[in-house]
Prior knowledge:
The complex is a heterotrimer of chains A (146), B (737) and C (41). Chain A is α+β, with helices and mostly antiparallel strands and 146 residues long. Chain A has helices at 13-17, 28-42, 114-144, and strands at 2-5, 20-22, 53-69, 74-90, 95-109. In chain A, strands 2-3-4-5 form a four-stranded mixed sheet, covered by helices on one side. In chain A, helix 2 crosses helix 3 (114-144). Chain A is elongated, with a radius of gyration of 18 Å. The two termini of chain B are 49 Å apart. Chain B is built from two helices and 46 strands. By secondary structure, chain B is mostly beta strands. Classes of the chains: A alpha+beta (146), B mainly beta (737), C little secondary structure (41). Chains A and B meet through strand 1, helix 2, strand 3, strand 4 and strand 5 of A and strand 23, strand 24, strand 25, strand 26 and strand 31 of B. Strand 1 of chain A pairs antiparallel with strand 33 (478-481) of chain B.
Amino acid sequence: CQVRPLYDSEGATAARLGxxxxxxxxxxxxxxxxxxxxxxxxxxxxxxxxxxYDVDLKVSSSVSxxxxxxxxxxxxxxxxxxxxxxxxxxxxxxxxxxxxxxSAVALVDYSIQEFANTRAVLDAEDxxxxxxxxxxxxDIATALSR
Amino acid sequence: QELKAPxxxxxxxxxxxxxxxxxxxNKVTAVxxxxxxxxxxxxxxxxxxxxxxxxxxxxxxxxxxxxPSGNRVYADAMDxxxxxADGFVNSLRIETPDNTRxxxxxxxxxxxxxxxxxxxxxxxxxxxAENPEKPPLWQxxxxxxxQNGETHTIRLENARFEFLGLPLVYLPFIEVPxxxxxxxxxxxxxxxxxxxNVGFGVxxxxxxxxxxxxxxxxxxTYFSEQGLLLEGEFRQRFETGSHTLRFAGIDQxxxxxxxxxxxxxxxxxxxxxxxxxxxxxxxxxTFGWDVMLQSDNNFSHTYDITGANGSVHTNTAYLTGLGxxxxxxxxxxxxxxxxADPASKREDRQAKVFPTLDYDYTAPQPIAGGELTxxxxxxxxxxxxxxxxxxxxxxxxxxxxxxxxxLTSEAVWxxxxxxxxxxxxxxxxxxxxxxxxxxxxxxxAIDPARFGYAGDFHNNDTLARGMVxxxxxxxxxxxxxxxxxxxxxxxxxxxxxxxxxxxxxxxxNEDAQSFVFDGxxxxxxxxxxxxxxxxxxxxxxxxxRYTGSFDNGWGLNGVFGQSYHLAGLNSFATEDLVxxxxxSGLEEDVSDFVTMFGVETPFGISLTGNMRLDxxxxxxxxxxxxxxxxxDFLTSSVTYTHISSQPIYADSTSTDEVQGSATVAxxxxxxxxxxxxxxxxxxxxxxxxxxxxxxxxxxxxxxxYSDDRDVSNTSGVDRKIGARLTFRTLGDINIGG
Amino acid sequence: CGRKGDLDPPSVAAQADTKYGKQGATQxxxxxxxxxxxxxx
Lengths: 146, 737, 41
């Protein structure tokens, strides 16, 4: 097996990672994953004008209530799951390098204050989206480093 | 041989094994594999006589006629005009494109459009494969059947509905839409439900098509205990969106069945009206609303009114914009809590939010090589009744009465530099400013005898606060690749240098009440879940992320780490109106350990887990784990949740719960489903649902049972049984995909 | 018996002349109208 820094100087991983175009998002959470992926792969340079690779992302998120209080029909906690199926295509020969599925879960506390619950879910969606972006970026990096 | 008549001028094309001309009678007889194509009709038969003078066609011997509408007619004998417009057919069977069948002894073709059948049988079921003689699951026998091509209906007169071969219902007539019809006025199939305190109810909806883009549905339900409930829905579709108006009303016959002096027991005439709109201005902007008004605070929940039956109905109005990288959302909320409390206190304790504005902006071009994002939030809430929880010397003030407004804007600049050798350094700079106006009852003024708050609360004040952060993140991702797998191990270190949080615990906390320290906020610059609190002080986060992927489809991932408060005020150890941060694992200089992990397998099993482990003895302070499987026959998931005692922040006793749900497809007709939540500490099973469904090509039957252990009677109905039986094409509903 | 189905936008409904609407009526692509807050996105 081979062990080396992902961004070692001879490797072209960094250059390839900077030349990716991500499919546009249709939901807020999908946009959060996309924006974070753009930063993680470009280091702040933003979206490249022309891209050697296309990543198609389908992001979905769901909330499920936990710790159901039987005396008052409410829940004391919840979890937010953000998942994505992705496929990485090299534009030069439109070859699919890798496709897969990743998901991330963020935990939340609930109270009877519905506004607080709503904002807590928004924050948990952002957290889970950022973590999901880390996992997808790692998969992209391994695919492009081959 | 063929008698080729040029198709173009609409004449008839006839082909057969052999043709016999009879010149003087001007008659043609075709025998053997006769094929006729004319004006979209295709006829196949053994023998056809074609009298060109009278234009009559008589065909015999396993005839198959395909009409332009797609109907296929199989018959023994047929005597029609050569335009197929009029004529007679004997012992025929019609199969329509949407897989329904009409069988009759004889039929009459009229006006190139209708077919009138005598002693016909209509069904949407396939004949039983083993022995076709057995009657299908259901069928409708009628003396006369009119297949009308103009109104696109099949009308069965003197009809008898048979189920499993048994005659059940006699109907003077029954009119069924044919396959070309998307919407048709008429009765839809009844549904049944048996709900506690409300009784057994049968709903018989009537659907009325007003136009291609407007319709109305009236659904009366007669309940054995409470009498007649009337539900109505008026839908309208516009070019850019749609609007739905709903209303419902009942004059309860026996309110006494409900628990004494609950909202349901104290009301007779009850009702609701609801308007829901959703419009799209252009591909990026949408706006809409969902507003429901009702006579008391539990009507729509108790009577399960579609679209408004939640234990909390969120009335909202919104304008949302989603661009390529930016997001805008302007929204208002009114939380309508539906419970059995006549005084509806829980609703008055809710925050009424008008508006909350979120605007997330990302600069399109890099600035000094880095990414600039600006997040702006405006929140204005008002509340009439306090929401306070007695908790020894750490009372919790989840909602203060009064008005509260906050405008926050936070800019973040970050850039990743790759140091030769593979080290990634990411400097992060951020600046934030808040403008706040507080006009609320101070926590110590609510009920000084019962509730006390140690924090220095600022009231009747307009003030500003800010935060600046200088941070640095260092990562060193290592790639380990073997022949069939690749792994990235990435140690991560962060340091954030900041001044102390201003007015910590001195201002209302409305949107940052929830605080869970887990793997997803270990590396967050501001770990609070909302803008009402700001993380200050100097803090370092250390951890490691592992991501592995295997060629055979397995995927692993994990994060593990700890956080250190280095200097300044630890924002998670200060007072807070809801004690956010207390018992969180971050309140001491060295935090608990947090970890999260995930396993994805190629055969449908996935596992995710989040855990917080005590920093001294590694004991689990919080655990959330879900094992899920989705396959062809079984879709199920089991979730275990554990929270150790958090006496200041939440519950002083630790809680454990297992939630499970499963849907099993036994075969392609039967499927069974169920779910339950098991409170392990008190050994109680609550929130149970169970049910089954049978579906085939002509019938759908589902039965659903649900109950929740409502010990303190907060909801009017705890046990519900719903049944739904639909015979395809006899009044079915097909909405959505 | 009736049949309840999704509604068509008025332009599609008008196109399909019969009261019951044709099956294959196509959905018109929505024109990209500018909106006053577009510069924010």
